[in-house]
Write a structure and sequence with these properties.
It contains seven helices and no strands. By secondary structure, the chain is mainly alpha-helical. Helix 2 runs antiparallel to helix 4, helix 2 packs antiparallel against helix 7 and helix 5 packs antiparallel against helix 7. The chain is globular.
Length: about 140
């Protein structure tokens, strides 16, 4: 399994991304109201909690695809998976940064610093995995 990932550090990064996407996906699916409050939405916006469900399905699907790629079931290349995840988190980081500095207003939501830093964690993990893998 270590050889298929390109080394021990890329394997650890892959396992972290499985845990991160799985946890975030399940949180969006089953705990959307609490998650929407953590992201700064008001309590009276019930439709926001429901809007987190498609995001939860997407992240749970990413987690399942990463698990399938770990065991080499269907997917033989992980370039596309990491590219899509990297773009998603970069867009999330830029959107949160623009909202924090009041350049882009996102439905009156006040963004705090933890919402800006959250997408940087998987970005760093993906970059470490890409830079340390012998397969790239």
């Amino acid at each position: 399994m270590i050889e298929t990932q390109g080394g021990l550090i890329p394997l650890i990064c892959h396992l972290f991304l499985i845990a991160f996407t799985g946890f975030f996906g399940l949180s969006c699916l089953f705990n959307g109201k609490k998650l929407s409050q953590n992201f700064g939405f008001r309590d009276d916006q019930e439709q926001v909690a429901v809007a987190f469900r498609p995001l939860g399905f997407a992240f749970t699907t990413f987690s399942l695809v990463l698990i399938a790629q770990l065991f080499q079931f269907v997917i033989t290349s992980s370039f596309e998976i990491y590219t899509i995840l990297l773009l998603f988190f970069i867009f999330g980081f830029v959107g949160n940064l623009l909202n924090y500095f009041k350049i882009w207003n996102m439905f009156g939501v006040e963004t705090d610093v933890k919402s800006i830093i959250l997408p940087l964690v998987p970005i760093a993990v993906i970059l470490i995995r890409c830079l340390t893998s012998t397969l790239f």
